Amino acid sequence: MTARGQDATLGLLFVALGLAAAWQAAGYRGASGTYPLVLGLSLAALGLLLALKSFWRGAKVPRPLVDHPGRVAVAVAIGAGYLALVPVLGFYAASALVAVLLPVALGFRRPVYTLLAAAGFMVVVWLVFTGLLAKPLPTGFWSGW
């Protein structure tokens, strides 16, 4: 498939996923649907921009779908592990673990930067969800202590 075709397909998939998420969030009661609704509409808008850009400026040259299949497999496996760990460890612990392990598993070898990025990410997520939105995230078995 050409670069143009890949970008157009991905963009249209993002549009569909974003609209589906927004549709689902519109059915939530009260203000609880506002955040996922905005995220879904944002994803759809960015997907539409990607698809349109691919039609206007996309290259018509062949491009492999994946440059490093092994790394994609590692990322998918870690993502699946993350989804399994969130109910057990809680969002914060599982996210911190993945934010440290994923770069290392994909070959990034600067531990100080990895730890700083993971810590910064966790602080931002905590500030947004706990401070700004007042929406607690799953805490896992830690909440019993």
Structure, explained:
The mean pLDDT is about 90. α3 (about 70-90) packs antiparallel against α4. The protein is mainly α and about 140 residues long. The longest helix has 24 residues, at about 5-25. The protein has five helices and no strands. The termini are far apart.
Topology:
Blueprint lengths: L2 H24 L7 H24 L11 H21 L1 H15 L5 H22 L13
Helix pairs in contact: 1-2, 3-4, 4-5
Task: Characterize this entry briefly.
The protein is mainly alpha-helical.
Radius of gyration (Å): 18 Å
Could you describe the largest sheet, including whether it forms a barrel? none
Number of strands: 0
Q: Decide which structural class fits the backbone.
A: mainly alpha
- Kindly estimate the percentage of residues that lie in beta strands according to DSSP: under 5%
User: Gap between N and C termini, in Å?
Assistant: 53 Å
What is the helix fraction of residues, given as a range? over 70%
Oligomerization category of the chains in this entry: single chain
Shape: globular
Number of helices: 5
Essential attributes:
145 residues; mainly alpha; 5 helices
